[in-house]
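Two proteins were folded this term; both appear here.
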Amino acid sequence: MDTNSNHLIIIAGPTAVGKTEISIRIAKEFNTAIVSCDSRQLYKEMNIGTAKPTVTELSTAPHYFINHLSIHDAYSAGKYEKEAIAQLKIIQKNNPVAILTGGTGLYINAILNGMDSYPDIAPSILEDLNKSLESEGLDHLLKELATSDPQYYQTVDQNNSRRIIRALSVIRQSGKTFTSFRSGKYKARDFTPVHILLHRDRSELYDRINLRVDLMIEKGLEQEARDLYQHKGLKSLQTVGYQEFFEFFDGNISKSRAIEMIKQNSRRYAKRQMTWFRKQDHWKTFHPAAYKNILAYIKSLISPDN
């Protein structure tokens, strides 16, 4: 066990599993703050579709990196790393325990291990790549990646267009392989992580996702998406809950089909999240209903006697 006296309690898990409630209870237990690692809840204009904590929940414990940006702001995992680590240092000046919660694996990894440095990308390169994706499809970009960086091609999620474009943008900008920028070196942190993964049976989780989407519709997700429709090309809005309604507004699908697609794509997203978490063996898994067990496990790790 690391002897570092600061601890970062990470409450992770797929969408709709129940991270918010558990994180708030633990924050109250340790009288500390919560740092969000949800890449969608960052944006202040996106509320209903990102299932942000309610105003009451936000007032129960200090939260950071919720409503942090505008959809028009450029942002990256690297920038998140710098800002979130700085915030954690501030929190832990007064409290050795802080909480990190969310389901964005890239952000969690950035906090725990750090991000590699990449060159700034010319807007024209990104514009060209996005045009290629739209006109020629993802397979065309995959062929380019297979030729220019076969090593990364073998490991990347070949269904993730954002990662493909990110890699190709670095390659085109630098003239080097994307792999050459991936050091694999971990950055030293001044806290010891406590890894908590919340889990529900698939059927239970999927029922919760479907119910959450129904509640979003009742709360006015369609109007929220309509208000953001004029900005549909922004990277921040290329996400579940908005893209499906944009397709409806464009006349490509019916409203009922859009709602069903939101549920379907949310379930798929949850499945991808769990696949990512399962690849790592450091998580201690709990059902959210087992709060007493979660708390006991955390206390057993952060006790000065350990």
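Next, the second protein.
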Amino acid sequence: MQRSENDADMQRNYQEYARTVYKYLLSLTRDEQIAEELTQETFCQAIKSCEKYDGSCSMPTWLCAIAKNVLRTYRRKHPPFEDIDDIPEEAFAVPSAESGAEASDERVRLFRRLHELPEPYREILYLRIFGGLSFREIGEVQGKTENWARVTFYRGKEKLRDTLSEETN
């Protein structure tokens, strides 16, 4: 009887938190198919280890920790490699040299500065901007409050703005 109760609990947790886990993984992978696959694997792993959940953190935090480990395993098994045949032809379209160089330089500069931000600012910005997570979801993933996520996002954005303006001066 205990097993069926755990399965029912995990089914409810899937319905409630799958979107949060998916968005978290999407923010880290930037690939919808991989994020979907890893979300499924995350819940498979959670079902296998549901007896280890002791309630010391929120369910979304626990699931995102599992998701992070699932992603690590995936990346070890699938090192980044892109087959040139898989790249759409539009990717090879060449913009004007001037506009392409300016846009590329700006993006590289922005991403470099974003990557240099200290934690938790960097991860919060990634989750919000690229993952599309709400402040409530970010708070759940980080095991903090929604207000903490808002304040940390704002401070991270200000730090990024400051480093970008220092660079241009």
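The chain has a mean pLDDT of 79. DSSP finds seven helices and no strands in the chain. These notes refer to the second protein only.
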